[in-house]
């Protein structure tokens, strides 16, 4: 998390919203053979206290995660901010970005919980893509689904700390922020510019 409190969202629901909307995270842990990171789709619990994910059994983290302390990071849009977009003197380039960190202890899920996670994950995203009819595991043979499920391991991270960062030039005056928004839009970073317009002035 960025140390400047200006970059912490005031909206308590925003971090969870970003996790649900993006739905993909980097999972960091430090097993005995050194720090590792895995990348996985995630499912945030309805109470926002748990984050579920699954990894290949062959992933370097899989055999070490049960009981481990881990960090999950969901990243949103980011972009370079040119100092030439400011009118004030003595400015330097920087980077605007959105990131949500969740720390907690991990436990391995049993097969039933893993299957429930997979069903929730596919249902959430099939609804987004508007598939008609949506994909479900009923479209697969039980044998093939079972074999593929055997190749992965499910986990749940009990979230003990949320650390979101929305670095959207909140530490700059409104006119300077407007120039950054214009510059980002011109560079094709519309999502980040939109977040600046919607959220950056909530201090």
Structure description:
It is a single chain. With 203 residues, the protein is α+β, with helices and mostly antiparallel strands. It has one domain: Pnp Oxidase, Chain A. Helices cover 30% and strands 33% of the residues. The protein has a 6-stranded antiparallel barrel, surrounded by 4 helices. Strand 2 and strand 3 form a beta hairpin. Helix 4 packs antiparallel against helix 5. The radius of gyration is 20 Å and the shape is elongated. It starts with 13 loop residues before the first helix and ends with a helix.
In short:
The chain has helices spanning 14-22, 111-129, 142-150, 174-186, 190-199, and strands at residues 24-29, 36-44, 50-56, 69-81, 94-108, 152-167.
* The first-level CATH class name: Mainly Beta
- Kindly report how far apart the N and C termini lie: 17 Å
Cα radius of gyration in angstroms = 20 Å
Q: How many extended strands?
A: 6
CATH H-tier superfamily: Electron Transport, Fmn-binding Protein, Chain A
Kindly state the percentage of residues in helix: 25-40%
Structural category: alpha+beta
């Amino acid at each position: 998390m960025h140390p400047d409190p200006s970059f912490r969202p005031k909206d308590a629901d925003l971090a969870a919203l970003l996790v649900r909307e993006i739905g993909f995270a980097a999972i960091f842990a430090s097993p005995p053979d050194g720090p590792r990171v895995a990348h996985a789709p995630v499912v945030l619990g309805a109470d926002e206290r748990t984050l579920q994910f699954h990894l290949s059994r062959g992933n370097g983290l899989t055999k070490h995660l049960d009981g481990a302390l881990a960090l999950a990071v969901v990243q949103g849009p980011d972009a370079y901010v040119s100092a030439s977009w400011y009118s004030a003197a003595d400015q330097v380039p920087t980077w605007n970005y959105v990131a949500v960190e969740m720390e907690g202890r991990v436990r391995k899920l049993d097969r039933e919980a893993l299957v429930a996670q997979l069903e929730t994950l596919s249902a959430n995203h099939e609804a987004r893509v508007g598939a008609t009819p949506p994909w479900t595991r009923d479209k697969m043979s039980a044998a093939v689904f079972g074999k593929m499920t055997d190749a992965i391991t499910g986990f749940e991270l009990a979230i003990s700390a949320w650390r979101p960062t929305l670095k959207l030039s909140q530490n700059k005056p409104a006119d300077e922020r407007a120039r950054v928004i214009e510059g980002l839009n011109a560079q094709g970073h519309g999502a980040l510019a939109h977040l600046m317009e919607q959220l950056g002035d909530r201090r």
